[in-house]
Amino acid sequence: MALCCAVYFTSYLTRKCYEASILAICDDTGLARTAAGLAGTATVAFYGGGQLVTGWLADRIDPRRIVFAALLLTAACNAAIPAAASAGTPWLVAVNATNGFAQAMFWPPLVKIFAESLAAERYKGAVFAVNVAANAAIVAVFALVAASIRLANWRLSFALAAAIAIAMAAIWWRGCNRRQPISISRTRPRTASIDSTRPQSIALDRNRPHSTALAAAMLLPVVLAIVCMGAMRDGIETWAPTIVKDVYGLGASGSTLSVAILPFFAVASMAAARKLRAALGDETRAALALFGIGLVCSVALHSTGGAALFPGLPLFALLSASMHGANLMLVCELPGTFAGGKRVGTVSGILNAAVYAGASLSIYGFAAIHARNGGWTAAFAVWVAVLAVGIALLGLSRRISRGAQRAMSGSGSTGTPSLSS
Fold first, then answer.
1. Domains and CATH numbers, the chain
2. Residues 6+ apart with CB under 8 A from 236
3. Tens digits of per-residue pLDDT, 316-327?
C-alpha cells in the first residue's frame, strides 16, 4: 500500500506542476492566459477520457506494467514542458494532452491492484490513503514551484518533477518484481464502495420496467450539478495563484505558496462532508449544503471584488473546500447507494466524466472571461451563477425522487427507481 501511495503522490506532483507554474510561465514567456488555459484544458480532457481506455486495459494486462509506463511517460512530458512553452501554444497543448493521458494510466490500474489483492475493509483504507497522498502532493508541488522560482526559475520545478517520476519508476519496477503476479479477472472490486447497512437512496427494483427511466431522470440533474462542481473545483485550483497575484498584488512565488493551504482545507472538508451526510441523511442533502456554503463565499467575493488578502484568501479556501466535499458526496459515495452494486461501475464512470467535463470548460473559460472583462470580478459573478445552477439541479433531482417515491407508494410498491431494470 505504501508503494501505491508513493506512486499516486508522484502522479499528482507531475500533473499539478503545470497548474502551480501557470502564472510564472505566462509572466516569463509572454504566453496568453487563454493559451495557457487551453493547454490545461487539454490535460484535463485527455485525463478524463483516457481513464475509459486505461480502465479497459487494466482488466486485460498486468496493471503494474501500466503504472510503470505511466511514470516514464509523465516524466518525459514534464521534462518537455519548458521547451514546449517556449515553442508555442500548439506544442504546449500537445505535450499537456499527452501528459493528461499518462496521468489517466494511474488510477484505474491502482484500483485494480487494490481490488485484486485487498479485502473490502483494507480496500477502503487504501483508497483513503492514496487520496491523502494526493492532497499531500498538492501541498508539495506548490512548495516545489515556489522554491524553484526563488532559487532559479519555474523550469527547475519540471526538471525535478521528471527526475522524481523516473526514480519512482525504478522503485516501482523493483518493488513489483518482488511480488506475486496479479490475476487479471473480470470481477468488479469487492464491495468496498457499497455499504449495505445504510439506507439506500436509490434501490434495486428489477420488477418495474419504468424504474430505469425514473432513476435516469433523477440522475441527470445530478450529473449536470457535478459538471458545475467540477468547473468550480478545478477552475479555482488552476487559476488560484493568478487570482491571488492579480487581486492582492503578491509576487509569483508568494502567490503560488499562499494557495498551498487549499489542500488542507480540502481534507478537512471531506471529513466534514461525511459528518454532514450522517447528520442530514443522504449525499444530495449534504452536497446541497456544501453548494450553499460555496455560494455564500462566491457572493462575498463578488460583492467585495476579493477585498483584502484577509478575509479574501480564506473565502477562496472555503469555496474550494466546499467543492471537494461535494465531490466526495456526489462522485465517490453516491454510486454506492445503488443497491447490490449492479451498476456502480457505470454510474461512477458517468459521474467522474462529468467532473472533467466541467473542469475542461472552466480552465479555459475562466481565463477567457478574465481576458474579455479585464479583471476577475466578472469571473466571480460567473461562480455565483454556476453554484446557483448547481443548487437548482440538486433540488430538482430531489423533487423527482420524492415524486417517484410518492407515486410508487400510492401504487402499493415498495421499490424505488434505479438504473437496473
1. 1-179 (1.20.1250.20), 200-421 (1.20.1250.20)
2. 316, 319, 320, 323
3. 889 999 999 898
